[in-house]
Amino acid sequence: MTEFSADQVVWTSRVSDHFGPVVELRDDAGAVSYYSVEKEFDVAGSSYAVLRQEDGSSEEPEIFKIVTTADGTLELITIDDDEEWENVSELYDELTFPE
């Protein structure tokens, strides 16, 4: 996978438009966590959402990949590919904290 650059970013609001400003996510054990939507963007043909836990238990936001299922439902999934996660994370840092 190639690195992403800030000039490739298209800001979006699909998750906020679909779920609202706060998203409810369940982990594999069924525990519910609430996240506020900070940013959403498309880059290189993929979509991502930057979310922050509502309870303040983590200072760092979490980045999820946005996918659309065959029936048109939006889902937020964990980025399992280490290289993709690193590229998206670095891009978000670049966009958030420009030099």
Automatic annotation (TrEMBL):
Protein name: DUF1292 domain-containing protein
